[in-house]
Design the sequence.
């Protein structure tokens, strides 16, 4: 019978202490990705599972969070981030580039980059990839609206006055609504005064957030509103009489970018993640129910259930409108203050 002596145990322990690099090498790698809350994170989880299968020992950890919370943590770390990649809509993407907490894109390993719609890729300005887009269109309650609107200008029909909801300009939806009002009547992102006048004409009911605006539409407190396609689809899937219109001359596309965070510990894995975001498989999954994210690459078949809420033909994609965010985003603070004064929020 073999005995394990105290000396052999101490010798083994000493050997482990003498080889700390061996112990560290056995620790699993972890890629930490900021994601959306709730079910909207599911396409990211699917993509993470694919990467884990390709890389035994890799763990892709998703952190559901508001991007501003993550930004505060990144800044507090003074360049040493615990995160590797994050999504940002267009206005915070612009801020992230200026403040340097996301990294310039490395195109060398992105096989799917050539499939991205060029106009959407250009908006990245060389940082991250255009992952998806959401739409601002017109949502309406069919129990209250007999003739659906066809254009943005239809919001100013007399029958809708006092029955329209708008979101506060602290949200991208609210800023887009102000820009739409201005651009529909000869203004622009740098000439918003006509937009304020036209919003007042609507005699609208204001909501602090898109979620509250959706609830007001569901409760029939309002009949119609500029709203995200995702919020509208979610309400309709509950069986509520809510419909979505992509109005002429086009719905407003607001892009979400996925970007590497500066000083990521795993730049090669992050590039693989970004390339996966641009894959047709990921894009088709994200376009389906209950996510309804717009595809940013060519050749993706939009699922049937998503077609009322997401462009499914090249012509519909080409009709999409955008907002000049570099012009309007820096004004946000003053625009929120003015909105609250006018609409008593």
Sequence:
């Amino acid at each position: 019978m073999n005995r394990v002596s105290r000396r052999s145990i101490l010798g083994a322990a000493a050997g482990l202490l003498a080889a700390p690099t061996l112990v560290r090498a056995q620790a699993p790698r972890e890629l930490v990705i900021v994601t959306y809350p709730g079910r909207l994170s599911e396409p990211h989880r699917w993509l993470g599972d694919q990467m884990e299968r390709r890389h035994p020992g890799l763990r892709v950890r998703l952190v559901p969070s508001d991007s501003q919370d993550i930004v505060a943590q990144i800044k507090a770390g003074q360049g040493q981030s615990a995160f590797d990649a994050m999504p940002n809509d267009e206005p915070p993407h612009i801020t992230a580039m200026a403040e340097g907490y996301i990294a310039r894109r490395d195109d060398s390993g992105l096989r799917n980059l050539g499939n991205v719609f060029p106009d959407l890729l250009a908006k990245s300005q060389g940082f991250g990839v255009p992952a998806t887009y959401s739409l601002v269109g017109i949502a309406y309650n069919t129990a209250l609206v007999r003739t659906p609107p066809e254009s943005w200008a239809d919001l100013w029909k007399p029958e809708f006055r006092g029955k329209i909801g708008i979101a506060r300009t602290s949200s991208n939806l609210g800023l887009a609504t102000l820009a739409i009002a201005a651009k529909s009547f000869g203004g622009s992102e740098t000439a918003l005064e006509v937009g304020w006048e036209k919003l007042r004409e609507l005699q609208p009911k204001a909501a602090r957030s898109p979620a509250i605006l959706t609830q007001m539409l569901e409760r029939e407190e309002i009949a119609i509103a500029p709203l995200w396609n995702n919020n509208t689809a979610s309400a309709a899937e509950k069986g509520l009489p809510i419909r979505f219109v992509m109005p002429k001359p086009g719905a407003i596309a607001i892009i979400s970018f996925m970007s590497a965070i500066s000083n990521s510990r795993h730049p090669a894995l992050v590039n693989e993640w970004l390339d996966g975001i641009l894959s047709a498989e990921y894009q088709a999954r994200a376009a389906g129910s209950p996510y309804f994210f717009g595809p940013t690459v060519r050749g993706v078949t939009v699922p049937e259930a998503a077609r009322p809420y997401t462009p499914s033909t090249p012509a519909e994609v080409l009709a999409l409108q955008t907002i000049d965010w570099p012009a309007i985003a820096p004004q946000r603070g003053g625009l929120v203050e003015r909105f609250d004064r006018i609409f008593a929020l």
About this structure: Confidence is low (pLDDT under 50) at residues 1-27. The CA atoms of residues 102 and 261 lie 4 Å apart.
